[in-house]
Amino acid sequence: MPASVNPPLVHAVDVIGTRDEARHLAGELAERLGISPDVERMVWDEASVSWVCALVDGGRGRLTLAAPADPAATAADTHRLVAAFERGTPAEAEAFFAAARHLPFTATEVAAAVAELPLTSRLADRWPDKPLAGVGVLLTIHHMRDFLVLVDSLLALGVDPAHMTVIDKEYPYAHTHRVDAHLVHRHGIRVWRYRDLREGIEDHIGRVAAAGKHSVIMDDGGYVMPTVLRELPEQAGHFTGLVEQTTSGIRKVEGLELPLPLFSVAESDMKGMIESYGIADAAVRNTLRLLPDEKFEGQPALVLGFGRIGHEVARVLEIRRMRVAVFDADITRLVAAHEEGFLTGRSLEDLVRAHRPRLVVGCVGSRSFGLREARLLPERSFLVSTTSRNFEFALDELREGSTTVTDRGVLGTSYQLADGPGICVLGHGMPINFHFAESLSNRYVDLVLAGLAVGAVAVAGRDERLRPGHNVAATNAILAESGIVDDYYRLYGPAAGAGRG
Q1: What residues contact residue 279 under an 8 Å CB cut-off, 6+ apart?
Q2: Separation of alpha carbons 214 and 261, rounded Å
Q3: 423: Cβ–Cβ under 8 A, 6 or more apart, which residues?
Q4: Which fold is adopted by the domain 9-103?
Q5: Any idea where the domains of the chain sit in the sequence?
Q6: pTM to 2 decimals?
Q7: Which tens digit of pLDDT belongs to each residue from 291-349?
Q8: DSSP conformation letters of 214-260
């Protein structure tokens, strides 16, 4: 007989909205559970003011809409949906909680996000002729609240939700399950997991091609086009263009012969000059949030990579009163770091041995630090990544070279090296600025999201300046012409502060 959970398991989701919105959301969830093949029946229990979920194998769960015990400690109009699994197997519990987490956002929550993203939310006003009506869109963008506003704008620009596909990168975002639920239950958009990337791409192409359309790729990390070119090359002609948000994504398509235009928001002047500091600041803030009892002031830190993000990370750590060293394999960047006053060296191993950093921040986007360097770290050191997925550190080497590897939950993974110190890889090596967080504030990321949509309109309209391959100069010109940077300046430039006391 399968083991039963003991004690009962509980999961709570806070939603913000009116009482009616919260009740409606809870009722929808109960209805969805009620038609699940694993559920025998859903019964409203008046005595406990909750829904009781009776499973076909005798297990039982319960849904209760509650209020926070201390309203002053939560946002106004917060309601708490509590899912309790009281009896059954671990597998049944996992299925029950997967459904319970799948909650769309309330209208109040969506309205708040729209207000925080004025550039992205008003894009349809720029193009009332719906320039995206003739294309499908395949998106691999971070699953945060801001993404939903971008999706709403793409729909308003003409994309049919039946011809939109979203790849869930499966990062542990703060609201990843709710974002998925909103896409599916409010818009009917097809969502595929990253682990099923190829199948998702094939499904998308089949649906959109059947409607006589081509598609635009909107990517964040170079996931789609390399897969198409390597595994589905005969399907590459389905896509009219690629809009890429990240430098790591640009690296992944380098060396590939692109048969379509690349609109490089990642390399644009707009993104480089405005967003990099925000990402660096979010990465450091989330690191400190995970390590509230550590003291980093006066301690040595090492930044790997002195590109746009690494440059800003080094500056933020310096402001936090850390002693910062920088390593970059590119000699020009290394010289730049030296001339800004950071400790540098031509050999990473020698630099680690001399500086003995307690905090190592990877900003390279490819394997930058392995077992050989980790052995030289002091006891209780921390590795932090700011780049896509878990490619920054040689985690396989660390595991093989350790006597003990411990999963420490939300904190990350600890490694006791066989012939070295005990270290901790925060967030299991995934990008720390997204680790159970929203990363940048919505108002900060607004300009970049709007830029992605501008790129989608340009490649869908087959702008004659966009040729197969990289188009950095054309990207900069099109973004400048769009007026979104002017609007950003009007919102947050000197005139925005006029009249403030």
Answers
A1: 309, 312, 386, 433, 439, 440
A2: 14
A3: 374, 377, 380, 381, 382, 383, 398, 414, 415, 417
A4: TATA-Binding Protein (3.30.310)
A5: 9-103, 109-271+442-497, 275-434
A6: 0.84
A7: 999 999 999 999 999 998 999 999 999 999 999 999 999 999 999 999 999 999 999 99
A8: EEEEEESSS-HHHHHHHH-GGGGGGEEEEEE--HHHHHHHTTS--SS
